[in-house]
Amino acid sequence: MIVKQYILPASVTMKEFEHFLKSKYEIGVFLDLHISQLKNVYSMAKAHNKKMIYHVDLIQGLKNDEYAAEYICQEYKPYGLISTKSNVIQKAKQKGVISVQRMFLIDSHALEKSYRLIDKIQPDYIEVLPGTMPWMIEEVKARVNRPVFAGGLIRSMDEVNNALKAGAEAITTSDTKLWDQFE
């Protein structure tokens, strides 16, 4: 499974999700979701031929563990799962969906810890946050030898383009204006 679009629209609200459904984008991310919305989001995405990547850590009402990942995979057939948790990433890989390991660029210690985890777990993609540091996107991509998504704090087309030039495969953003500009 490969992501072949430069913007991954990330929905936080149902209004943003509906905007995504009307867009030309095939793959989207749902960030902040209540467990009671999963069935509706799944049905709407399926009806519009959209593929969803769910951020397991941000689904309210579900613990962000391998059991939640297994439940989501069985019941809602996601295109992929995003998490900071290695057991969620492992379950996504086991279930044959795209696994996206979130990596927060906080400090050198956190960076090294993330590198060790990525080396051990081998996710399909890494999401680097914030995605506004092209030099870090280059470093992470070279170090982990995995495709990288850039997300967080990207607010302009210049920042989108800088992240892509630095080697990001795609940009995750909830800024609908950027979705529309890039579409």
TrEMBL record:
Kindly give the SUPFAM superfamilies that the UniProt entry links to this protein. Answer: GlpP-like
The molecule here is called Glycerol uptake operon antiterminator regulatory protein
What's this protein's function?
Regulates expression of the glpD operon. In the presence of glycerol 3-phosphate (G3P) causes antitermination of transcription of glpD at the inverted repeat of the leader region to enhance its transcription. Binds and stabilizes glpD leader mRNA.
Q: Does the keyword Manganese apply?
A: no
| Keyword entries, A-Z | Glycerol metabolism, RNA-binding, Transcription, Transcription regulation
Q: Which InterPro entries match?
A: Aldolase_TIM (IPR013785), GlpP (IPR006699)
**Is Transcription regulation among this UniProt entry's keywords?**
yes
